[in-house]
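Form 7-S
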Amino acid sequence: MISKLSLNQFFIFLYLLISIKTYSIKEGHASSKIITNFTFGSNYFSKYSTSDTIFEKIVNHNPNIFIWLGNAVFLEQPKLNYFQTSPKHLDIDMIKASYAKVKENEYYSKLMKNTPIIGTWGDEEYGIINGDKENQGKEAFKQYYLDFLDTDILDSRRHDTSLGIYATYSFGKRDKTVRFIMLDLKYDQNSYLKKENDNDMLGEKQWTWLENVLKKSNEAFTFICAPNQILPNDRFIMKKWYAESRKRLFDLIGKYKKNGVIFLTGGLGFSQILKTFCPLENIGYNLYEFTSSGLGHTNKLGSFFNNIYHNDYLIEGTNYNDINFGQIKINWGEKDIKDSYIEFEIYDKDDNVKSNIIVNYTQLMFRENSTKDYYDNEDNIKDVNYMNVHDDESCKREIYHRVRTPLMVFKYYFTHLKQLPVAIITTIVIILFTETLFSKRYYYILFCALFCFLVYVVLFIFDWIKYRNFRNEIIGNN
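Output:
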């Protein structure tokens, strides 16, 4: 006869077993579900949001997963750019209300019921613009964000204050497998202001964790997700990775010979698809990056500068600056993984495709000694010598983009002159509606028009100098 105590112990054990299994599935650490399409985005809820129906379009796509890439909510904390290490106070009611507002959206609620939702945070959820490891309130903000993602109580991030929100999830079976790696660029990031020995984006604990994940995993596709763009290293306005951390990430991908690595990023306030226009030397294939941003609002100013300032990594025709979300479709090969291909798609708020890029799996396969591909004939040997000149990334196409004559730079900017009138007209409209400047508004209009023109000229000169210096560097190395 089973005693009452033994029966209670049995039920407690059964409960714990079910809880652990539920946690594993809910957190997506391992699932046999085969991924064929998923959606993602960033920059959604704030008082400036202009779309409450974007999730209706996302739900209609019936995605296997939805991924947050930063700024799901804009917490109205008293924050300053760079100059404070932690919020002056935590408005708990405001924080909870902001997250609740997203979940109250009719279509986001439907998405939560039918689709696993994972993600990483950006500046806004972290409580400080450009916040780093110095944020004294980071643990509290972490708990609120984990609540938003409905993270299980058993999750180690709930109880370990040394852990950020980084996590990994794998889906699929046999050769149809996908891994998502959520990076945390806040919790242990070194300060932009302090001079430290190592400009580090992740912190040693996260680097160790990431290396173990890449070492032990063998999925067909690996999507590395972050709230800031990874590939661009040629901009002076947009946020970018520390060069040391960027190179360290690329080195890890090459060290463990990873196939199918793709970056998913957000946070900019506009969307674009990027690509290294040559195989990286230690990886052997082109890295792609899909940035999706603007679920609720967009960054018009950032898009303006992005359009007129040359982006070496942008795939032409994929820059989109209005409400949107990103989708990736995985078309698995019937007999061989090499027959697979993926589609990158940017959708607008009316569910129209604004950009579509198709990449075959064979274009994402690791290759040893990729520099040998450039020894086609005597003329191409010089191109190989350009390897390692610029941040370990170069090839013929990149040399074409970077080594420009003054005439080539002028032609590029001339084709983008249409951006200049837009900036001037926008400035004039703002001034005309500014009553405090009414008496002297025409002087200010002239001044601001001249200012916009001078900004344009400065950008042109900056590009000219950049390409001239790079050209001299190549000549000096050859």
